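[agent] plan:
  1. take the single chain provided in the ticket
  2. run structure prediction with default settings
  3. attach structure tokens to the ticket
  4. add a short note for the reviewer (M.T.)
[agent] executing step 1
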Amino acid sequence: MTNTIPEPDVAGRVAQQTLARREAAYASEVRRLLDAALDVMRTCGTTSRPRVADIVAAAGLSNEAFYRHFPSKDALVATLLEDGAVRLRSYLGYQIAKESSPEVQVRRWVEGVLAQADEQIAATTLAVIWNGGTAASGQTSGRHFSSAPVGTLLHEPFAALGSSDPELDAALAAHATFGKLSDYLWLGAQPSTAEIDHIVDFCLAAITPRR
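[agent] step 2 finished; step 3 output follows
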């Protein structure tokens, strides 16, 4: 019996290297487009919506690069909303993970959500929400883009606190908290310590106990 050593697939290896380089380049293009869109939206505020040409110019890319990744501006805005939700969920998840008490975890969640009304980032958050109004559809239409994914972070603490339906209770708490956040953003106001305490108490009181 003759043992044969398989020949290395040189062509396949080179092709994989090429694909890896292209993937990295494309990921960089997408990030540049998203960051540029965020900057342009911040500048435009809620008075005008940026054009594809504005975003492409700010990113230093071409129309070809834009449409290589997004079929329309609405598609880019939808991706920007998703990216913002992922970032906020990651930040809040980190803050919650540092606490062992479920009550304190709920407080950190509420504080983190309402921190989006801070004057340093409120204008950007509001601009993204406003632009997202034309891109959202179906279940996401008419609500804050982070409400659903960020609300899932309350499942575990609510379950630990005796909720009979952690998912539903978390969704209700998220709708209420993000609704107040939207009010603060549109009013150009920031929640006081007393208001944050009240919202935390409301979220805890909203838990339906197990029977």
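[agent] step 4 note for reviewer: The chain is about 70% helix and 0% strand.
[agent] ticket updated
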